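Solute carrier organic anion transporter family member, pasting as requested.
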Amino acid sequence: AGCEKEPSSYMWIYILLGNMLRGIGETPITPLGISYLDDFAKEEDVPVYVACLHTIAMLGPMFGFLLGSLCARLYVDIGFVDLGSITITPQDSRWVGAWWLGFLIGGVISFLAAIPFCFLPKSLKKPEEANNDKTSYDYSPVIMLCIFQSQLIYPFLSDFYTSLKKVLSNRMYFTFLCCSLLQFSSFIGFLTYKPKYMEQQYGQSTSKSNFLIGLTSLPPIGLGIFLGGLIMKKYKMNLVVATKFAFIMSFLAYIFTLLHFFVGCENYMVAGMTVSYE
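C-alpha coordinates follow.
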Protein backbone atom coordinates (compact mmCIF):
# COMPACT_ATOMS: atom_id res chain seq x y z
CA ALA A 1 0.00 0.00 0.00
CA GLY A 2 2.90 2.35 0.63
CA CYS A 3 3.96 2.06 -3.01
CA GLU A 4 0.63 3.25 -4.36
CA LYS A 5 0.33 6.90 -5.27
CA GLU A 6 -2.71 8.94 -6.13
CA PRO A 7 -2.46 10.74 -9.49
CA SER A 8 -1.54 14.35 -8.82
CA SER A 9 -1.57 15.67 -12.39
CA TYR A 10 -4.70 17.07 -13.98
CA MET A 11 -3.11 17.40 -17.40
CA TRP A 12 -5.68 14.98 -18.82
CA ILE A 13 -8.38 17.63 -18.27
CA TYR A 14 -6.55 20.08 -20.53
CA ILE A 15 -6.06 17.37 -23.15
CA LEU A 16 -9.75 16.48 -22.97
CA LEU A 17 -10.86 20.10 -23.37
CA GLY A 18 -8.32 20.70 -26.13
CA ASN A 19 -9.51 17.71 -28.14
CA MET A 20 -13.12 18.78 -27.59
CA LEU A 21 -12.43 22.28 -28.95
CA ARG A 22 -10.43 20.85 -31.83
CA GLY A 23 -13.28 18.52 -32.73
CA ILE A 24 -15.79 21.38 -32.68
CA GLY A 25 -13.57 23.40 -34.99
CA GLU A 26 -12.73 20.61 -37.40
CA THR A 27 -16.16 19.03 -37.74
CA PRO A 28 -17.68 21.58 -40.17
CA ILE A 29 -14.81 21.18 -42.64
CA THR A 30 -15.99 17.84 -44.03
CA PRO A 31 -19.79 18.29 -44.33
CA LEU A 32 -19.73 21.97 -45.20
CA GLY A 33 -16.62 21.64 -47.36
CA ILE A 34 -18.14 18.87 -49.46
CA SER A 35 -21.38 20.84 -49.81
CA TYR A 36 -19.34 23.90 -50.81
CA LEU A 37 -17.57 21.90 -53.53
CA ASP A 38 -20.82 20.32 -54.69
CA ASP A 39 -22.52 23.70 -55.06
CA PHE A 40 -19.77 25.62 -56.84
CA ALA A 41 -18.02 23.02 -59.00
CA LYS A 42 -18.95 21.19 -62.15
CA GLU A 43 -20.70 17.92 -61.44
CA GLU A 44 -18.10 15.80 -63.24
CA ASP A 45 -15.30 17.49 -61.25
CA VAL A 46 -16.84 17.03 -57.81
CA PRO A 47 -15.55 13.41 -57.28
CA VAL A 48 -11.97 14.52 -57.96
CA TYR A 49 -12.24 17.51 -55.63
CA VAL A 50 -13.80 15.41 -52.86
CA ALA A 51 -11.14 12.74 -53.38
CA CYS A 52 -8.43 15.40 -53.05
CA LEU A 53 -10.07 16.63 -49.84
CA HIS A 54 -10.09 13.15 -48.30
CA THR A 55 -6.59 12.36 -49.59
CA ILE A 56 -5.18 15.43 -47.86
CA ALA A 57 -7.14 14.42 -44.76
CA MET A 58 -5.30 11.09 -44.82
CA LEU A 59 -1.92 12.78 -45.22
CA GLY A 60 -2.50 14.54 -41.90
CA PRO A 61 -2.41 11.35 -39.79
CA MET A 62 0.60 10.17 -41.79
CA PHE A 63 2.59 13.27 -40.85
CA GLY A 64 1.14 12.95 -37.35
CA PHE A 65 2.65 9.47 -36.98
CA LEU A 66 5.97 10.74 -38.31
CA LEU A 67 5.86 13.65 -35.85
CA GLY A 68 4.95 11.22 -33.06
CA SER A 69 7.93 9.09 -34.04
CA LEU A 70 10.20 12.13 -33.74
CA CYS A 71 8.73 13.19 -30.40
CA ALA A 72 9.02 9.65 -29.03
CA ARG A 73 12.77 9.82 -29.59
CA LEU A 74 12.99 12.86 -27.30
CA TYR A 75 12.85 12.42 -23.55
CA VAL A 76 9.62 13.50 -21.88
CA ASP A 77 11.32 16.17 -19.74
CA ILE A 78 13.37 17.68 -22.58
CA GLY A 79 14.24 21.28 -21.76
CA PHE A 80 13.82 20.71 -18.04
CA VAL A 81 16.53 18.15 -17.25
CA ASP A 82 20.10 17.53 -18.28
CA LEU A 83 19.84 14.97 -21.06
CA GLY A 84 23.39 13.88 -20.33
CA SER A 85 22.20 12.44 -17.03
CA ILE A 86 19.64 10.16 -18.72
CA THR A 87 20.98 6.62 -18.73
CA ILE A 88 18.16 4.88 -20.60
CA THR A 89 17.48 4.85 -24.35
CA PRO A 90 14.25 4.83 -26.43
CA GLN A 91 14.60 1.04 -26.66
CA ASP A 92 14.21 0.75 -22.90
CA SER A 93 10.69 -0.11 -21.70
CA ARG A 94 10.97 2.63 -19.06
CA TRP A 95 11.52 5.33 -21.69
CA VAL A 96 8.78 7.96 -21.98
CA GLY A 97 8.88 10.18 -25.05
CA ALA A 98 7.95 13.85 -25.29
CA TRP A 99 4.28 13.09 -25.99
CA TRP A 100 3.23 16.66 -25.09
CA LEU A 101 5.39 18.25 -27.78
CA GLY A 102 3.14 17.02 -30.58
CA PHE A 103 0.14 18.84 -29.12
CA LEU A 104 2.01 22.16 -29.15
CA ILE A 105 3.27 21.72 -32.70
CA GLY A 106 -0.14 20.53 -33.93
CA GLY A 107 -1.90 23.41 -32.20
CA VAL A 108 0.32 26.05 -33.82
CA ILE A 109 -0.08 24.47 -37.27
CA SER A 110 -3.86 24.24 -36.83
CA PHE A 111 -4.01 27.91 -35.89
CA LEU A 112 -1.98 28.93 -38.94
CA ALA A 113 -4.08 26.68 -41.20
CA ALA A 114 -7.29 28.31 -39.96
CA ILE A 115 -6.24 31.82 -41.00
CA PRO A 116 -6.89 31.37 -44.78
CA PHE A 117 -10.51 30.39 -44.03
CA CYS A 118 -11.11 33.97 -42.90
CA PHE A 119 -10.50 35.17 -46.47
CA LEU A 120 -12.90 32.80 -48.25
CA PRO A 121 -15.75 34.65 -49.99
CA LYS A 122 -19.27 34.18 -48.72
CA SER A 123 -20.39 32.95 -52.14
CA LEU A 124 -18.99 32.15 -55.55
CA LYS A 125 -20.41 32.38 -59.04
CA LYS A 126 -21.63 28.98 -60.12
CA PRO A 127 -20.41 27.55 -63.43
CA GLU A 128 -22.91 28.02 -66.25
CA GLU A 129 -23.62 24.34 -66.70
CA ALA A 130 -23.26 23.33 -63.04
CA ASN A 131 -26.18 21.74 -61.22
CA ASN A 132 -28.53 22.07 -64.22
CA ASP A 133 -29.15 18.42 -64.91
CA LYS A 134 -27.86 16.52 -61.89
CA THR A 135 -28.58 12.82 -61.94
CA SER A 136 -27.57 12.26 -58.34
CA TYR A 137 -29.61 13.08 -55.27
CA ASP A 138 -28.29 16.01 -53.29
CA TYR A 139 -29.02 15.85 -49.60
CA SER A 140 -26.36 18.38 -48.60
CA PRO A 141 -28.86 21.21 -47.90
CA VAL A 142 -30.76 18.98 -45.49
CA ILE A 143 -27.55 17.87 -43.79
CA MET A 144 -26.35 21.47 -43.53
CA LEU A 145 -29.71 22.43 -42.08
CA CYS A 146 -29.29 19.78 -39.38
CA ILE A 147 -25.78 20.96 -38.57
CA PHE A 148 -26.73 24.60 -38.24
CA GLN A 149 -29.92 23.90 -36.29
CA SER A 150 -28.08 21.58 -33.90
CA GLN A 151 -26.07 24.59 -32.73
CA LEU A 152 -29.14 26.66 -31.84
CA ILE A 153 -31.03 26.78 -28.57
CA TYR A 154 -34.14 25.08 -27.30
CA PRO A 155 -36.90 26.83 -29.36
CA PHE A 156 -35.48 25.35 -32.55
CA LEU A 157 -34.95 21.78 -31.28
CA SER A 158 -38.24 20.68 -32.81
CA ASP A 159 -37.08 21.84 -36.25
CA PHE A 160 -33.78 20.05 -35.76
CA TYR A 161 -35.60 16.84 -34.82
CA THR A 162 -37.74 17.10 -37.95
CA SER A 163 -34.71 17.62 -40.18
CA LEU A 164 -32.78 14.79 -38.52
CA LYS A 165 -35.73 12.44 -38.92
CA LYS A 166 -35.98 13.35 -42.60
CA VAL A 167 -32.33 12.56 -43.17
CA LEU A 168 -32.29 9.28 -41.23
CA SER A 169 -35.53 8.09 -42.83
CA ASN A 170 -33.82 8.10 -46.22
CA ARG A 171 -32.94 4.46 -46.78
CA MET A 172 -30.00 5.10 -49.09
CA TYR A 173 -28.36 7.57 -46.71
CA PHE A 174 -29.02 5.40 -43.65
CA THR A 175 -27.53 2.32 -45.37
CA PHE A 176 -24.47 4.30 -46.35
CA LEU A 177 -24.19 5.57 -42.78
CA CYS A 178 -24.24 2.02 -41.36
CA CYS A 179 -21.70 0.85 -43.94
CA SER A 180 -19.34 3.72 -43.11
CA LEU A 181 -19.74 2.99 -39.39
CA LEU A 182 -18.63 -0.63 -39.86
CA GLN A 183 -15.73 0.28 -42.15
CA PHE A 184 -14.30 3.01 -39.94
CA SER A 185 -14.77 0.92 -36.79
CA SER A 186 -12.58 -1.85 -38.21
CA PHE A 187 -10.07 0.60 -39.64
CA ILE A 188 -9.65 2.55 -36.40
CA GLY A 189 -9.18 -0.65 -34.41
CA PHE A 190 -6.58 -1.88 -36.86
CA LEU A 191 -4.71 1.42 -36.81
CA THR A 192 -4.89 1.74 -33.02
CA TYR A 193 -3.48 -1.65 -32.08
CA LYS A 194 -1.06 -2.17 -34.96
CA PRO A 195 1.74 0.00 -33.47
CA LYS A 196 1.44 -1.77 -30.11
CA TYR A 197 1.47 -5.15 -31.87
CA MET A 198 4.68 -4.20 -33.68
CA GLU A 199 6.26 -3.16 -30.39
CA GLN A 200 5.36 -6.37 -28.57
CA GLN A 201 5.72 -8.88 -31.39
CA TYR A 202 8.77 -7.59 -33.21
CA GLY A 203 10.58 -5.80 -30.39
CA GLN A 204 10.40 -2.35 -32.03
CA SER A 205 10.50 0.93 -30.16
CA THR A 206 7.48 3.22 -30.00
CA SER A 207 9.25 5.71 -32.22
CA LYS A 208 10.01 3.20 -34.97
CA SER A 209 6.53 1.66 -34.80
CA ASN A 210 4.87 5.04 -35.35
CA PHE A 211 7.30 5.80 -38.16
CA LEU A 212 6.54 2.55 -39.98
CA ILE A 213 2.78 2.93 -39.54
CA GLY A 214 2.78 6.47 -40.90
CA LEU A 215 4.98 5.52 -43.82
CA THR A 216 3.31 2.27 -44.92
CA SER A 217 -0.36 2.21 -43.87
CA LEU A 218 -1.81 5.65 -44.61
CA PRO A 219 -0.28 6.67 -48.00
CA PRO A 220 -1.89 3.70 -49.85
CA ILE A 221 -5.28 4.70 -48.41
CA GLY A 222 -4.87 8.28 -49.62
CA LEU A 223 -3.73 7.04 -53.03
CA GLY A 224 -6.76 4.75 -53.27
CA ILE A 225 -9.15 7.60 -52.46
CA PHE A 226 -7.56 9.82 -55.10
CA LEU A 227 -7.62 7.10 -57.77
CA GLY A 228 -11.27 6.37 -56.95
CA GLY A 229 -12.14 10.01 -57.59
CA LEU A 230 -10.29 9.96 -60.93
CA ILE A 231 -12.07 6.76 -62.01
CA MET A 232 -15.48 8.24 -61.14
CA LYS A 233 -14.67 11.39 -63.12
CA LYS A 234 -13.40 9.48 -66.16
CA TYR A 235 -16.38 7.14 -66.47
CA LYS A 236 -18.92 9.70 -65.17
CA MET A 237 -20.50 7.24 -62.78
CA ASN A 238 -24.02 7.79 -61.60
CA LEU A 239 -25.32 6.72 -58.21
CA VAL A 240 -26.02 3.09 -59.14
CA VAL A 241 -22.72 2.54 -60.97
CA ALA A 242 -20.77 4.17 -58.13
CA THR A 243 -22.51 1.87 -55.64
CA LYS A 244 -21.57 -1.23 -57.67
CA PHE A 245 -18.00 0.05 -57.95
CA ALA A 246 -17.80 0.60 -54.19
CA PHE A 247 -19.21 -2.88 -53.52
CA ILE A 248 -16.67 -4.59 -55.80
CA MET A 249 -13.74 -2.71 -54.27
CA SER A 250 -14.94 -3.42 -50.72
CA PHE A 251 -15.40 -7.11 -51.51
CA LEU A 252 -11.88 -7.36 -52.93
CA ALA A 253 -10.53 -5.60 -49.83
CA TYR A 254 -12.38 -8.13 -47.68
CA ILE A 255 -10.81 -11.04 -49.59
CA PHE A 256 -7.32 -9.62 -49.13
CA THR A 257 -8.01 -8.98 -45.44
CA LEU A 258 -8.77 -12.68 -44.96
CA LEU A 259 -5.11 -13.40 -45.75
CA HIS A 260 -4.22 -11.97 -42.34
CA PHE A 261 -5.46 -15.20 -40.78
CA PHE A 262 -2.71 -17.17 -42.52
CA VAL A 263 0.25 -14.98 -41.53
CA GLY A 264 1.68 -14.05 -38.18
CA CYS A 265 4.11 -15.10 -35.48
CA GLU A 266 3.83 -17.13 -32.33
CA ASN A 267 3.16 -15.22 -29.16
CA TYR A 268 5.98 -14.47 -26.77
CA MET A 269 6.06 -16.48 -23.56
CA VAL A 270 4.95 -14.08 -20.81
CA ALA A 271 4.98 -15.39 -17.26
CA GLY A 272 1.54 -15.27 -15.71
CA MET A 273 -0.21 -14.76 -19.06
CA THR A 274 0.80 -17.34 -21.67
CA VAL A 275 2.80 -19.60 -19.35
CA SER A 276 2.73 -20.26 -15.63
CA TYR A 277 5.21 -18.67 -13.24
CA GLU A 278 6.79 -22.07 -12.69
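Note for the archive: The CA atoms of residues 150 and 157 lie 7 Å apart.
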